[in-house]
Amino acid sequence: NADTAMYHAKAAGRNNYQFFAADMNQQATERLDIERKLRHAISRNELALVYQPQFASDGKHPTGVEALIRWHHPSDGMIPPDRFIPIAEETGMIVEIGDWVMHTACREMKHWIDSGLKPVRVAVNVSARQLRRRDFCETVAGALAESGLPAELLELEITESSVMENPQEAILILERLGRMGVSLAIDDFGTGYSSLAYLKLFPIDHLKIDRSFVRDIEHDLNDRAIAFGTIALAHSLGLNVIAEGVETPDQLELLRSNGCDEVQGYLFSKPLTGGAAFAFLHANAGAE
Ligand code: C2E
Ligand code: MG
Ligand code: MG
Ligand code: MG
Fold first, then answer.
1. Which atom of ligand 1 is nearest to the CA of 89?
2. Residue 118 has what pLDDT?
3. Which of 53, 152, 215, 216 is the most buried (most CB within 10 A)?
4. What is the pLDDT of residue 5?
5. β-strands 77-79, 121-126: how paired?
6. In a 10 Å sphere around its CB, with 0-12 CB exposed, 13-18 middle and 19+ buried, how is residue 142 labelled?
7. How far is the CA of 68 from the centre of ligand 4 (A)?
8. Looking at ligand 1, which residue's alpha carbon is closest to its atom 33?
9. Is the C-alpha dihedral spanning 49, 143, 167, 178 positive or negative?
10. Which atom of ligand 1 lies at the shortest distance from residue 157's CA?
């Protein structure tokens, strides 16, 4: 919070305050710079999707991919999503970008299936701002119709906080999407605030355990308790669980032996460009 930061900076003395103000000024300039450049990113073809495979917890059978956005700016190079997605959200540009992501992901998966890939689902991240739009369900329906991708193969990843902004409204939207046949996942589960009472009411299919609970699962007993508790809770609500950020065989084994259904992480694959993802899925599709 800027005000609190100012207050502490002031309390720490005049020099610190000036240092802080300069720092915040620089941050603001950077934001404006990103905002200005982002306005042209779609029309200048600077955005691309990469795809990270997801597996059944045997670590062998692919169940899907998560589409993740990448922005290659001609002079600034790769700008990571954590740096521009929040700005796209605040400015509303996420609506156009999100639309592009949805259409591109559906089209590309349909293309892979038409090229002989055994069908798996493609998961697309949806931000709170997109979900709040009255025409969001039409956008999803449009991407499915335009691409010809069966609705069952599209999964939408939504965070706890974005559904908790207005739970009553969110339930209606998620129910509509569910009736269309689209599957729904709660992303980054455990990092936000969510009410279990509401969770029960959401027509969701997957809970994604956040990477922060997986990272130290071998050594941190609290993280382990949260991860295992989430699996038990999800199963008792009839949901599948997918763990993100799985990097080691030990993490995989702990999750698998405690009933985690699916896994995603660098242990299996980093996010891949479209062509590489297709080849990877194709090569792993028949694995026994
Ligand atoms: P997320 O949806 O939780 O995506 C998972 C992030 O974890 C991705 O980072 C992925 O590359 C990274 N990851 C996967 N496996 C591992 C692992 O084993 N170790 C580590 N250290 N990291 C791993 P990425 O691609 O930088 O995306 C960051 C966030 O940006 C995403 O988090 C999501 O919230 C947002 N994002 C990405 N693409 C989109 C998009 O198309 N639309 C929206 N609204 N948000 C997006
Ligand atoms: Mg995600
Ligand atoms: Mg996530
Ligand atoms: Mg996460």
1. 44
2. 95
3. 53
4. 55
5. unpaired
6. middle
7. 12
8. 125
9. negative
10. 2
Give the CA diameter of the chain: 66
Tell me which residue has its CA closest to atom 46 in ligand 1: 125
User: What is the token pair recorded at 227?
Assistant: 């991860």
Whole-number pLDDT of residue 7: 54
Expressed in angstroms and rounded, the spacing between residue 80 Cα and the centre of ligand 1 is 9
Give nearest CA residue, ligand 1 atom 4. 68
Query: What residues in the chain have per-residue pLDDT under 50?
Result: 287-288
Give pLDDT tens digits for 208-245.
999 999 999 999 999 999 999 999 999 998 999 999 99
CA–CA gap between residue 144 and residue 23 (Å, rounded): 45
Query: Is the complex ipTM more than 0.90?
Result: yes
